[in-house]
Every structure is written in C-alpha cells, then in structure tokens.
Fold:
Amino acid sequence: MTSDLPRRLFAELLGACLLSATVIGSGILAVQLSGGNDGVALLGNTLATAAILYVLVSTLGPVSGAHFNPAVTLVMLLRGDVRPAAAALYIPLQVGGCILGAILAHVMFDLPLVQEATANRAGAGRLVGEAAATFALVFAILGAIRHRPNDVPAVVALVITAGYWWTSSTSFANPAITIARALSDTFAGIRPADAPGFIAAQFGGALIAWLAGGWLFGKKTP
Structure:
C-alpha cells in the first residue's frame, strides 16, 4: 500500500462515491425495468453491486485498502493495519463519498438531489440481519487476507451477493452507505428513523467478526 496519504484518502472518497452511486442507481433502473417484480429488481441491484465491488477493490485496494466502509476501517484500526490518524480521515470521507454517490445517482435519473427515504426497514429481524451481514463481510475479508490475499476482491463481491439474498435486511453492511441510502427515497432507501439501528448492528457485527477472525486466523508472522 502506498504511503501517499492524499492518494489513499482520495481513493476512499472515490470508491465510496462509485459504490453508492452503483447501489442506488442500479436500484432505480432495476425498478424501472422490472415491471413491478421486486425479485427481478433485487437481482439487478445485486449483480451491479457485486460487479462494482470487485472492480473497486481490485483497483483501489493497492492504494488505500479499499475499505469504503467505516465498520471495515474500525476493524483494520483495531488490527493495527491502519493508523488512528488515517482512520479518523477515512471515515468522514467514506460517508461523504457515499452521500455524493447518492446525489450522482439522483442527477443521472433526474430526481431531487437529496431526499428523505420512506422505505420501512424497522424490526428486530432486520437488525439481526444487518449484524449477520456485516459479520459475514468482515469475517470473510479477514479470512481472505490471511489465506487468499489475491482473492479479496472476489470474496468481497461474493459475500455481498450472498448477503443481498440470505439476510432479512438485504445486506447494507456499511454505515456510510446506510447514511446515504437514508437520503434516497428509492428502491435502495431506508427511513432515517431506521438508520441508527442498522448502523449500530453493523458495528456490532463487525466487532464480533474481529474477535472471531482474530482467534481463528490471527496474523501471518513476518
């Protein structure tokens, strides 16, 4: 990873922006093309998200680590892979990038730039789903870093693909994108009132994955 902090920070901002724009934009187009079939819309949303994740992690991973996600950054900070000063800059840029991505998606589809989402995602089951989805993401990343580092992009894309379909929450698994989706009254949206619970569940799932992954995988010795 390069030690050039400005490049690392821009990579996190850009990656978060493109990820958010893809999640929200593909959701908008999927609804337009699916003829009211939510399953078809979710499939389109899933495939686009997985594809952009693979591309972004492959291309920006060598620059910044390709977190795009405050929960991932927190775990990397706890592991000692990211310095506290860098983590403190990564997280607001991830949130800002995701918000910019939501605005970009709205611009492309001629929608109001900032909206208040109305999609009801309340309920204990969905919170458990978010904790499980984020656990799966972080746990998979830690395992891939330890055993299959070249496969990290594919692992990230695949675990999110699965998460869209096996979790009750459809696997947001990212506090920054949760904030952005609260500002988009579209297929990918979440009511602002439901976002704090999702974010708390995401950080909780990430911390459990850090504990489990640290015990199972450890770190390679130099």
The radius of gyration is 16 Å.
